[in-house]
């Protein structure tokens, strides 16, 4: 059991004391995440798959690459959609529930801290670990492709890394909400994987079926796409590198013609909601539930 250097008396705490508690938890969570097997395995898998996708995509262009949103970046977007949400949901789902199982949660709440400090500290530590995994994966791809002489667009890679991190924080927030609701870590992680399957596969199929069977209007179809953070990431990635959203069909064309330059703000608002709202709900749930 890790010992935290937290204040021993619950006297009136100043903001620096609350910040110190949060940063102490964040450092502990980052250290534990980096040492854990999931971090190493996910980072290795993400890097290997990213290199494979990059080489295959670049080989289709004769090694010269494409301008703008090339095949390499397009392949990496699909890889991020599969790996990053699973990585973040699994990490978030195990965060609170595992501490509850080990009795660590009771110890933390015996210290002068509130649920918000606990959640924010854990969130910051895990977010830093996810950022390291994403940066290592995509950075390794970019370095090796440059070493092999395959042209990539640096701006596209930076955009992809930043948006992948935003997606990871949103899914981490959802995972932590699941973790506060579950009593056991195995149940929380299983629920997180189920949510991942729903977001990756079922939501796309539901949109396609709804568009055909219910004859949804373009406005409704685009609004429904904004509900899924994975779809928001995909559309934002395309729009950020000046690609045409018509690859997403009529909804993409409608978005470009109707909103134009304000699309960045719309996508940013959707991602911010997925990051903030689950954390707020998790704080409410954690403050009302017993740590046992």
Q: Can I get a quick summary?
A:
The protein is mostly helical and 292 residues long. It has helices spanning 15-35, 37-59, 71-102, 104-109, 115-147, 154-181, 185-213, 218-227, 229-240, 250-259, 263-288.
Polypeptide structure, described:
The chain has helices at 15-35, 37-59, 71-102, 104-109, 115-147, 154-181, 185-213, 218-227, 229-240, 250-259, 263-288. The protein is mostly helical. 41% of the residues are buried.
Offer a few descriptive terms:
mainly alpha; 292 residues
Termini separation comes to 16 Å
How many strands, which pairing sense, and closed or not: the largest β-sheet?
A: none
Report Rg: 21 Å
Helicity level: over 70%
Category from helices, strands and their pairing: mainly alpha
Coarse shape: globular
Tally of strands: 0
Strand and helix order: HHHHHHHHHHH
């Amino acid at each position: 059991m890790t010992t935290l250097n937290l204040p021993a008396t619950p006297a009136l705490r100043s903001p620096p004391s609350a910040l110190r508690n949060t940063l102490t938890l964040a450092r502990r969570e980052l250290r534990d995440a980096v040492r854990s097997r999931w971090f190493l395995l996910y980072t290795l898998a993400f890097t290997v798959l990213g290199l494979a996708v990059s080489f295959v995509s670049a080989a289709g262009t004769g090694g010269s690459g494409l301008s703008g949103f090339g095949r390499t970046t397009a392949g990496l977007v699909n890889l991020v959609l599969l790996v990053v949400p699973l990585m973040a949901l699994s990490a978030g789902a195990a965060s609170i529930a595992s501490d509850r199982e080990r009795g660590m949660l009771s110890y933390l709440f015996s210290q002068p801290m509130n649920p918000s400090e606990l959640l924010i500290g854990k969130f910051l530590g895990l977010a830093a670990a996810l950022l390291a995994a994403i940066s290592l994966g995509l950075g390794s791809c970019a370095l090796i492709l440059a070493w092999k002489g395959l042209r990539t667009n640096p701006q596209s890679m930076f955009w992809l890394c930043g948006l992948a991190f935003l997606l990871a924080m949103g899914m981490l927030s959802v995972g932590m909400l699941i973790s506060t609701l579950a009593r056991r870590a195995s149940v929380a992680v299983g629920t997180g994987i189920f949510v991942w399957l729903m977001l990756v596969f079922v939501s796309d199929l539901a949109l396609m079926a709804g568009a055909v069977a219910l004859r949804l209007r373009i406005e409704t179809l685009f609004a429904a796409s904004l509900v899924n953070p994975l779809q928001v990431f995909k559309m934002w990635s395309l729009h950020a590198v000046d690609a045409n959203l018509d690859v997403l069909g009529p909804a993409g064309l409608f978005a470009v013609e109707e909103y134009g330059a304000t699309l960045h703000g719309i996508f940013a608002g959707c991602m911010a909601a997925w990051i903030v709202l689950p954390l707020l709900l998790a704080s409410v749930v954690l403050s009302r539930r017993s740590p046992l």
